[in-house]
Write a structure and sequence with these properties.
By secondary structure, the chain is mainly beta. The protein has two domains: 162 residues, Sandwich (Jelly Rolls), CATH 2.60.120.260; 145 residues, Galactose-binding domain-like (Jelly Rolls). The protein is built from one helix and 21 strands. The strands form five sheets. Strands 12, 13, 15, 16, 17, 18, 19 and 21 form an eight-stranded antiparallel β-sheet that branches. The longest helix has 5 residues. The protein is globular, with a radius of gyration of 21 Å. It comes from Nonomuraea aridisoli. Pfam families: Allantoicase.
């Protein structure tokens, strides 16, 4: 399911709602907030019931409302979720999604004049529901436009896909080869019982346990693991393994193995970890790899994994 892929529009990834036709009842910025939409009944402000979403006024003239979203990370869009949570008598009956590729730092006016490609055709919506739309388009996009017909409220817009940032900016420089924002992706893991494994390569620091990756308790004598596809084939020089916020459920140890085709390259032998601690390890292996397997022993959670190095 495409929802296992990162939400490229997420505010915590750098996404932004740069413009909207109207936001009379509820602010456009809510569209890309992390987490599920909240709701408290009978919380009225000067504009009516307070909603955790984007809501426009009732249109009295022809046309429809729209919002322009800059993706936090450009990429290939695999699916879109239009969530009308809590909007029951004021949701739009139809929506459409288009995408554009506009490099640099365009203004809202320039975006409105850009070439837009329809990735989700005009589709019916229901109130207080998530609507999943698969996208079959391999184009790299930087922005999306949500059109609602004719007006109403949408709680969240999720744009799931594969990051395709412009790494030419890092020519001759080091970078975090694992970072989701640079094109890294967790492609496999042993367990994701408590939280999503892609959290470990998200930007910034984890504020609490749920913003990292945490597995169930193992009872079989094995160990948990995940595999990170790097932003590009590269040489990893420094590993950061962060167990911040994991006081009683951090792994006892970690090991790192580089993967390059069928070849396995030891990067870090099994090494003890401490709870609630950022760990940094210099790596001596000069061989380039495309993926890194992170083994934790026996189970537990990691807040972040950073793999600094150079593209090969």
């Amino acid at each position: 399911m495409f929802t296992a892929l990162p939400d490229l529009a997420l505010r915590t990834l750098g996404g932004a709602v740069v413009a909207a036709s109207d936001e009379s009842f509820a602010e456009k910025e809510s569209l890309i907030r992390p987490g599920r939409p909240g709701f408290s009944p009978a919380t009225f402000g000067s504009k009516g019931q307070v909603y955790d979403g984007w809501e426009t006024r009732r249109r009295r003239e022809p046309g429809h409302d729209w919002a322009l979203v800059r993706l936090g990370v450009p990429g290939v869009i695999r699916g879109v979720v239009v969530d009308t949570a809590w909007f029951k008598g004021n949701y739009p009956p139809h929506a459409r999604v288009a995408a554009a590729s506009v490099e640099g730092h365009p203004s809202p006016a320039e975006l409105l004049e850009a070439h837009w490609t329809e990735i989700v055709p005009l589709s019916g919506l229901k109130g207080d529901a998530e609507h999943h739309f698969e996208v079959t388009d391999d184009t790299r996009y930087t922005h999306v436009r949500l059109d609602i017909h004719p007006d109403g409220g949408v709680a969240r817009l999720r744009v799931h896909g594969e990051a395709r940032p412009d790494l030419s900016l890092y020519g001759g420089l080091g970078l975090d080869l694992a970072a989701l924002a640079n094109g890294g992706l967790v492609t496999d893991c042993s367990d994701a019982y408590y939280s999503a494994p892609n959290n470990v390569i998200a930007p910034g620091l984890a504020r609490h346990q749920a913003e990292g990756w945490e597995t169930a308790r193992r009872r079989d004598g094995g160990n948990d693991w995940l595999v990170i596809r790097l932003a590009g084939r590269g040489i990893v020089r420094l590993a950061e393994i962060d167990t911040t916020n994991l006081l009683y459920n951090a792994p006892g140890a970690v090991a790192l193995t580089g993967l390059d085709g069928e070849r396995e390259v030891p990067l870090l032998p099994r090494t003890r970890l401490q709870p609630d601690t950022p760990h940094r390890f210099r790596l001596a292996c000069p061989d380039p790899v495309t993926h890194v397997r992170v083994d934790i022993y026996p189970d537990g959670g990691l807040a972040r994994v950073r793999l600094h190095g150079h593209l090969a």
